[in-house]
Design a protein that fits this description.
Layout (H helix, E strand, L loop, with lengths): L5 H15 L3 E8 L13 E8 L12 E5 L8 H4 L3 H10 L7 E5 L12 E2 L3 E2 H16 L9 E6 L1 H12 L6 E5 L17 H6 L10 H13 L14 E4 L2 E4 L1 H11 L5 H9 L3 E7 L5 H16 L5 E5 L13 H13 L7
Parallel strand pairs: 3-4, 3-7, 7-8, 8-11, 11-12
Antiparallel strand pairs: 1-2, 2-4, 5-6, 9-10
Length: 350
């Protein structure tokens, strides 16, 4: 019988352990002090899901992190429970599409759907939650490469809006940004005041009065984020229009404030320099979105990035709203993960 030396035997055991290693999900909740005192009763306890790659337990190894922002009304578990993101990430790492990476999702939802990832006296300081609490929490509790060069920001639709916004405001925290079918990048064809049911908004006595009203909920969440009024219950917003005698009367001052604060294109004069600091920036959109305003806005946003000399990639592909995001042939697998594989710094042992 041929005996292995002790070092060789240990090496075999290590290989066997690695062969059997599996990825795992950590589900936890953290208290977001940034959300304390919000006007609409949002709990500061927020759910967080963390994907850890199969070789996470390799001694001394550290990993880049991708933060993924979900679409409206989706909590931190959505990518894993609905779209089987764990299996997709396992497959992408196994076939070399991307190296071993940590992926983090958190609950940024509000009663009306989305926080829009900004600080608001009405819904709470969501930007601060991300930058001052969530990122430090992940770096303190997991073996991350705690550098902007190894930290990616991604998002889907409303989350895509948030991803670009974080790239505009915090290139010191996130080094690369990919936005899947973002909304709110610029003006479409139909004016924003043409969407909500103004009679219903004006008659609302509570947020629950907007239940079942898709556009009313979406636009009120936009107003709570971008034209909030903490002294104006029950919606706590300054409405940019009202219906009087059957006619919609647009408030020019409030509409100007809304457009300036909400649409990403209007932040370019101040924030284009921050986008230039990113290692890489990409966004895409499906040309068959039934709300064609999203398509037009993204096309126009790309052209304005050119005007400001921002380096980026943009792609219009054949699909409708959210159709080709997940799955083995979805944009996450075919485009988003290869983008981060190319543009994040992966090497790291400590």
């Amino acid at each position: 019988m041929k005996w292995l030396s002790i070092p060789a035997a240990l090496l075999c055991l290590a290989f066997a352990a690695n062969a059997e290693a599996e990825s795992r999900l950590d589900h936890t909740r953290i208290r977001a002090t940034s959300l304390a005192g919000n006007k609409i009763g949002i709990s500061p306890m927020r759910g967080v899901s963390v994907y850890l790659p199969p070789d996470y337990d390799t001694p001394g190894k550290r990993f880049p992190v991708i933060y993924f922002l979900n679409n409206m009304k989706e909590t931190e578990t959505e990518p894993f429970t609905t779209y089987d993101a764990k299996a997709l990430l396992d497959a992408a790492i196994a076939d070399g599409t991307i190296g071993s990476v940590i992926v983090v999702t958190a609950d940024f939802s509000t009663p009306l759907g989305s926080s829009w990832y900004v600080n608001s006296p009405v819904t709470g300081n969501w930007q601060d939650f991300m930058v001052k609490e969530l990122v430090p929490h992940i770096d303190n509790h997991y073996r991350t490469l705690a550098s902007r060069d190894s930290r990616g920001m991604a998002g889907d639709r409303m989350g895509g809006y948030g991803a670009i916004r974080f790239g505009m405001t915090h290139p010191d925290v996130f080094g690369a940004v990919y936005a899947l079918h973002p909304v709110g990048t610029g003006n479409g064809v139909q004016p924003m005041h043409g969407r909500p049911d103004w009679d219903r908004l004006q008659a609302a006595k509570s947020l629950t009065d907007l239940d079942g009203d898709l556009f009313g909920s979406i636009f009120t969440s936009i107003y709570q984020a971008h034209v909030p009024n903490a002294a104006h219950p029950p919606l706590y917003v300054d409405l940019p229009a009202r219906r009087e005698n059957g006619v919609v009367d647009v408030d020019a001052a409030q509409t100007g404030r809304l457009i300036k604060n909400f649409l990403l294109v209007n932040h370019l004069p101040e924030r284009a320099g921050n986008l230039k600091r990113l290692r890489a920036f990409k966004f895409d959109w499906g040309r068959n979105d039934s709300n064609y305003d999203h398509v037009i806005a993204n096309q126009a946003f790309a052209r304005m990035l050119d005007e400001y000399g921002v380096t980026y990639e943009a792609e219009e592909y054949r699909a409708w709203w959210g159709e080709r995001t997940w799955g083995k042939d979805g944009r996450v697998m075919t485009d988003l993960l290869p983008f981060f594989a190319k543009n994040l710094a992966f090497a790291g042992h400590k």
